[in-house]
Design a protein that fits this description.
With 518 residues, this protein is mostly beta strands. The chain is built from two helices and 46 strands. It comes from Mucilaginibacter ginsenosidivorax.
């Protein structure tokens, strides 16, 4: 009996191996996504898909396959097929298209390749200000829905094109209005624009265009000039398990951006990604010195801003968490209801003087125009090792919090609180400042009504004249808030000067209790 069971087990294992059945799949990570393939690599045309070669595509790296891909999309739509299929090869896009792009996306029809290592869609070279490859023609197709794009390398062939200095509109895919869009296991490289653009800009009517339920995951972004992915006029999007690196990123790896009061930009989650800007440089168009340091994730409301300078409910509710960031920052400009948590930063020093679109703090929560009503930004459980500037900065926000962050080696104050109120608890800070310019663990400036700073710990790990941190908490200006700040139960080890420094004109304003040296 035992012998029979053993023989059957061996037979089952051999059958599984023969049929390429994986009994216990392992999770993919951003470092492996570019080599991932699927069972399509050895399969015929998937069920419910139109093979582009049946429409005349060659995929030989020479022939212009633009028309064949366009025809395949239209054929699939006409025959109720959910996808077009691109067998292994290099499909050249030779047409120039129009200002919108070259190939119109088709509602309900996605694109499938065997994987970005073997399936390539590439712009031909020698173009001047090239258009995007795929786009939604929203005049003819008002909405795009139920599309999956997977297993394809999209290449803008940037090195062989010519551009005006201000040109930045050659995207891989541009979708302005629709829902249920998934992009997975793809590569986007060498575009003088965005890898992916979702939403529209400068709407004339509220939510004239809106993209919802977007998912971008397990993909690679390399050498993208403007943004790896831009979410604009979006409500509900997920960006996860991606690898963003290389040259470029004029604005950021991921840009969550509202341009006008007629747009909605809500509920975007960015998590479990790698943003590695240590292997490339920002574009020269940023001005100043050429540096690696760039914005990994940027959230903002730009241009004319909110009506009457009062924040509304259409910007925010974003979650940025568990990302690994090298030579980069996360910033939030004028958005509210934001959670930034569990991210790890590793930044070495670079001189960014004169470089546009950059600020020194690893996490920068700011307001460019004195907006009223900016509330509820939480920055918790991040690990920040940054030699660029502050670890965390808040400016002109209320109802904020920064709790249990671990911050080390910042050349400026580890946490800067400017005209901001909230709760700052349990942060662990070491070695902020420098010998020539000592800094505090937490700096407070301006009106901060009801601010509470409690149970934080700071320490110099150096001794004597090599110590760089002067105070645990330092108040450096007048505070005209209605409720005095509370500074309690904070500890400082081996501090250069003391534990708490109050502003000399308001020496008794702050409520101080049980702040001790350890």
């Amino acid at each position: 009996m035992k012998k029979t069971i053993l023989i059957l087990a061996l037979f089952f294992f051999a059958a599984c191996k023969k049929d390429n059945i994986i009994l216990a799949p392992q999770p993919e990570t951003p470092s492996t996504i570019q080599t991932v393939t699927t069972s399509l690599a050895t399969a015929a045309t998937p069920a419910g898909a139109c093979n582009v070669k049946d429409q005349g595509a060659k995929g030989d790296g020479i022939t212009d396959d633009t028309k064949a891909i366009r025809n395949a999309l239209l054929y699939a739509r006409a025959h109720g097929m959910a996808n077009i299929y691109l067998p292994d090869g290099s499909y050249m896009i030779g047409e120039t298209g129009n200002g919108g792009g070259i190939i119109k996306l088709v509602d309900g029809v996605g694109m499938i390749g065997n994987g970005p290592a073997t399936c390539h869609i590439k712009l031909t070279g020698s173009r001047y200000n090239p258009n995007s490859i795929f786009y939604q023609d929203y005049a003819g197709t008002p909405s795009i829905a139920n599309i999956t794009i997977q297993g394809i390398d999209f290449n803008g062939n940037l090195a062989l094109q010519k551009f005006d200095a201000a040109y930045q509109f050659c995207h891989a895919l541009s979708i302005n209005n629709g829902k249920n869009i998934e992009v997975k296991n793809c590569k986007f490289q060498s575009f003088r624009g965005d890898g992916l653009l979702f939403g529209d800009c400068f709407e004339t009517k509220l939510n004239l265009h809106l993209v919802s339920n977007v998912s971008v995951h397990d993909s690679e972004f390399f050498n993208i000039y403007r943004e790896g992915t831009m979410f604009c006029a979006v409500n509900g999007a997920f960006f996860y398990n991606n690898n963003v690196h290389g040259d470029g990123y004029l604005v950021g790896g991921v840009d969550i951006e509202r341009h006008s009061v007629n747009e909605t930009v809500l509920n975007v989650s960015v998590y479990n990604n790698i943003f590695n800007f240590a292997d490339g440089y920002g574009p020269v168009e940023r001005g100043g010195l050429k540096v690696r340091y760039r914005r990994a994730v940027t959230m903002g409301f730009f241009y004319s801003g909110y009506t009457n300078g009062v924040a509304d409910s259409l910007s925010g509710h974003h979650k940025i968490y568990n990302n690994k960031i090298y030579q980069g920052q996360i910033d939030c400009w004028g958005m509210l209801n934001i959670s930034i948590s569990g991210n790890c930063f590793t930044n070495t020093y670079e001189n960014i003087t004169g470089t546009q679109f950059l600020t020194a703090p690893a996490i920068n929560i700011a307001d460019p125009s004195n907006t009223k009503g900016l509330i509820k930004v939480s920055v918790d459980n991040n690990v920040i090792k940054s030699a660029m500037g502050n670890g965390i900065m808040f400016n002109n926000y209320t109802q904020t919090q920064a709790n249990t962050n671990v911050i080390s080696g910042t050349p400026a104050d580890a946490i800067a609180i400017l005209n901001t109120s909230g709760y700052f608890y349990g942060n662990n800070i070491t070695d902020a400042g420098s010998v020539l310019k000592p800094a505090a663990g937490i700096l407070v400036s301006g009106n901060s009504s009801g601010l509470e700073i409690t149970t934080n710990q700071t320490a110099n790990t150096t001794a004597g004249k090599l110590r760089t941190m002067d105070y645990v908490v330092k108040i450096v200006s007048a505070n005209n808030g209605k409720v005095a700040p509370k500074i309690t139960n904070n500890k400082g080890h081996n501090m250069l000067t003391g534990i708490v420094s109050v502003y000399w004109l308001q020496a008794t304003l702050a409520q101080l209790l049980n702040n001790i040296a350890s």
